[in-house]
Amino acid sequence: xxxxxxPGPGTMLDGLRRRHASRSSPRPLSLNxxxxxxxxxxxxxxxxxxxxxxxTLHRLKLMSSPSLSELAKSEKSSPEDRGEKQKRAGANAxxxxxxxxxxxVFQKKGLADNELYILNEGVRHLLxxxxxxxxxxxxxxxxxxxxxxxxxxxxxxxxxQKLLDSLAETWDFFFCDVLSxxxxxxxxxxxxxxxxxxxALLHFRxxxxxxxxxxxxxxxxxxxxxxxVTQMLLILxxxxxxxxxxxxxxxxxxLVQKVVSPYLGTHxxxxxxxxxxxxCSVMGESEEAD
Length: 290
What we know:
The chain has a domain at 136-261. The protein has helices at 9-20, 52-64, 68-75, 79-106, 115-127, 135-152, 160-185, 196-209, 214-219, 227-236, 247-256, 282-289; strands spanning 263-265, 268-270. 57% of the residues lie in helices and 2% in strands. By secondary structure, it is mainly alpha-helical. The two termini are 53 Å apart. Helix 4 (79-106) runs antiparallel to helix 7, helix 6 runs parallel beside helix 8 (196-209) and helix 10 (227-236) runs antiparallel to helix 11. A hairpin with a 2-residue loop joins strand 1 and strand 2. The protein is built from 12 helices and 2 strands, in the order H-H-H-H-H-H-H-H-H-H-H-E-E-H. The protein has a two-stranded antiparallel sheet.
């Protein structure tokens, strides 16, 4: 997912601002007078009269060349403008510090002393600025996506038992260390829906679990499923998207059926004794019981 040089957090925030702007500013008109050339005056033309093309070019030059007073005004900005620029620069610096801290957590690097408190204060400050409306979008599309790719790239080419064992280690690290640290860093955001925990688990499901060859590894005859993988699947099947059951969730349920039997899923009760396509509908059982 990460290909080439990724843009810095400050650049990405500027892109978010541009995308949420109501309309873009018009492009300035640029005239190159070197491309115009007036024909030489004819011999019979009165030398005292000025050629009309030359008069037009002269007027355009006067219109396009700002006076010294106008240049001075453009160089000076009002105190309000300077204050706004300073606020944006400070917000970008805060975003950068949060970005670096979160990526460091995914890279198994600890936070410095008192850094967690500073990050909490930074999050609180950003939520009160114009960037606060971009917070969830930035958290999902940048921080969590980048972090999950870091974890996924370590195991993405593994297969079979090696994949199961490596995925178990990855889940243990994420669930015990990364998830708790993310909740601590973004503690000021708690109480909003979706929560940081929910977003992180959904990104782990979509970016890691559903992108590796886990179904093939679980289907092998002598597969030894680590307890952490079973725990991972059961926890993830309890996390739902805001829009309800979707394709990703159903794909996860098909993985849960391979490690838990019987399993009550979205479409009914699944048993290891049944064929892959067979299931017993809970609604059907209740109707027969009546």
